[in-house]
Automatic annotation (TrEMBL), chain A:
Biological classification of the source: Bacteria, Bacillati, Actinomycetota, Actinomycetes, Pseudonocardiales
Name of the molecule in the record: DUF6596 domain-containing protein
Record-annotated DUF6596 domain positions: 177-279
Annotated ranges, domain RNA polymerase sigma factor 70 region 4 type: 108-159
Source organism of the structure: Actinomycetospora aurantiaca
One Pfam family matching this protein: Sigma70_r4_2
Length: 415, 123
């Protein structure tokens, strides 16, 4: 990715080395923004040099040395002539010892700092921890490069303004701020997953990037108690991504879970995701990502849609809505309720929703259409699907809902 | 999330615009410029433009099988698009906050619409 033309081995090596290099630089020089700029230049240089000369024995050290040279050159340019002599002494970079340990967690916490808006957290994370170039991030997010460039430089300036430099987080800080990191990684995944029906060729694969970073975070958390939810998120991503090939039809149409060709699910990803979620559930009290992963794992276990263990799905949703107020969890629970207790019971529960934020959610009519169709109430289902299509926020979903309505209208009995 | 902030205009607004003093009009333009700069600075701006008068519009249709280009015979049209901001922001609240800063909002003719994406809920 970083550096077009460099082979996959080079790209993998330099992106694996990037966070440790940035951590080492930031510890030594304090100015995170300048270090990040210097590392970007070093990454570009590395993608050319390593492709030509082969991988260095110590990729992180190579990056630190090269970036340090850039930093010092920057300092020299910025400093008055009379200071040059003194600074010349610093021209040769100090031997590039790499700080021991893994800086991934500290870097992610810094990039997802609460002083930054979410879109900025996403962009900075992808660049500083993911090692993506600004152009690659812009392609991934379907944004002009200038917008992303500005987002990154503004984010770095904001961090300087609020006095945040790179530092090792203590346990409290890590515990308090890790949910923001997981939310950002989840958002990166969703951005990529969202695009899978769209113009895939033009996009950087943010799905793979999110999986890679989450895996890295879980590794770096080692024995920390937060590792469970990081693994839960990783499992959720793997299990969701496993369905990627099956969730769009040949014409780009959305295929709902019940109708997906399950032989097209990625068995390797399903197995890894299921194993991870099993491990986390054994270890302790699960968080929201782990429970969602567990739901996805139950679906993965069913060879056919009709074999789904819906009572277990419902029990997991009951757990989930207990500590995660997201409307999607509540609506998912209603779908499961419809499978276990019948569509009429779920429709009654849907009618009884009294929280305005939930009742007005744009996906409520889609769930109503699904339940009404299952209950044999075709007219109500058609009306709900059409209402859902009007309120849909995505093109594939709108097409799917209109299709659903017209199928019922032409083929279904009108009751 | 991307949002399109649409600035509508109509004959009534055009009349009020003509009644403004040159200073007021300049201030209006300066406020647009300042907002555009600010959004570019925060990394939220995707694009923003003001549109020329609708009398300059050409209407293109291929409904007859080959392209037909015509001047708009749509004198009865009550409202027309005068400009837009395409922004990428954290949430709808932020888009509404930006819309409230658009100078045209004093006329009450600013619309905020979500941009369709390619996501899909497969549950």
């Amino acid at each position: 990715m970083s550096g077009a033309g460099a082979g996959p081995a080079v790209v993998e090596a330099l992106r694996a080395a990037a966070p440790a290099a940035l951590g080492t630089l930031a510890r030594r020089h304090r100015d995170f923004g300048a270090c990040e700029d210097a590392l970007q230049e070093a990454l570009v240089a590395a993608s050319q040099t390593w492709a030509a000369d082969g991988l260095p024995t110590n990729p992180t050290g190579w990056l630190v040395t090269t970036a340090t040279r850039r930093l010092v050159e920057g300092l020299r340019r910025d400093t008055a002539r009379r200071r040059r002599e003194e600074l010349d002494a610093r021209r040769e970079p100090p031997p590039a010892e790499v700080a021991p340990g893994d800086d991934t967690v500290a870097l992610l916490l810094l990039c997802c700092h609460p002083a930054l808006r979410t879109p900025s957290q996403v962009a900075l994370t992808l660049r500083a921890v993911g090692g993506l170039t600004t152009a690659e991030i812009a392609r991934g997010l379907l944004l002009p490069e200038a917008t992303v460039a500005q987002r990154i430089s503004r984010a770095k300036a904001k961090l300087t303004e609020v006095g945040r430099t790179f530092a090792d987080p203590d346990d409290d800080e890590r515990r308090a701020r890790l949910p923001a990191v997981l939310a950002v990684l989840s958002l990166v995944f969703t951005e990529g997953h969202t695009a899978s029906a769209g113009d895939v060729l033009a996009r950087t694969d943010l799905t793979e990037e999110a999986i890679r970073l989450t895996r890295r975070l879980a590794d770096a958390l080692a024995d920390a108690p937060e590792r469970g939810e990081a693994l839960g998120l990783l499992a959720l991503m793997l299990l969701t991504d496993a369905r990627r090939a099956a969730r769009t039809g040949p014409d780009g149409r959305l295929v709902p879970l019940a109708e997906q060709d399950r032989t097209r699910w990625d068995a390797t990803r399903l197995a890894e995701g299921t194993a991870l979620v099993t491990e986390v559930l054994r270890e302790g009290v699960p968080g929201p990502y782990t429970v969602q992963a567990a739901i996805a794992a139950v679906h993965a276990e069913a060879g056919r849609a009709q074999d789904t263990d819906w009572p277990q799905v419902l029990a997991l949703y009951d757990t989930l809505v207990g500590f995660w107020p997201d409307p999607m969890a509540r609506l998912g629970r209603l779908v499961a309720l419809g499978e276990v207790r019948g569509p009429e019971a779920a429709l009654a529960a849907l009618d009884a929703l009294d929280e305005p934020g939930l009742r007005d959610h744009h996906r409520v009519p889609a769930v109503r259409g699904h339940l009404a169709e299952a209950a044999g109430r075709s007219d109500e289902a058609v009306a709900a699907y059409r209402e859902a299509a009007r309120r849909a926020l995505s093109d594939p979903e709108r097409a799917y809902l209109l299709d659903r309505a017209s199928r019922l209208r032409t083929a279904g009995p009108v009751t | 999330m991307k949002f399109m902030i649409l600035l509508h205009s109509n004959a009534h607004f055009a009349q009020r615009w003509e009644a403004l003093t040159p200073e007021q009009r300049t201030g209006f333009g300066a406020d647009h410029l300042a907002l555009t700069r600010e959004l570019a600075g925060s990394g939220e701006l995707v694009a923003s433009e003001g549109l020329a008068d609708p009398s300059l519009a050409r209407w293109v249709s291929t409904a007859e099988g080959s392209p037909v280009v015509a001047d708009g015979p749509f004198a009865e049209t009550k409202e027309h698009l005068a400009g837009f901001y395409l922004v990428d922001v954290a949430d709808a609240e932020r888009a509404e906050e930006i819309a409230a800063r658009v100078p045209d909002a004093v006329w009450g003719l600013v619309e905020v619409r979500p941009v369709l994406d390619m996501s899909g809920w497969d549950m």
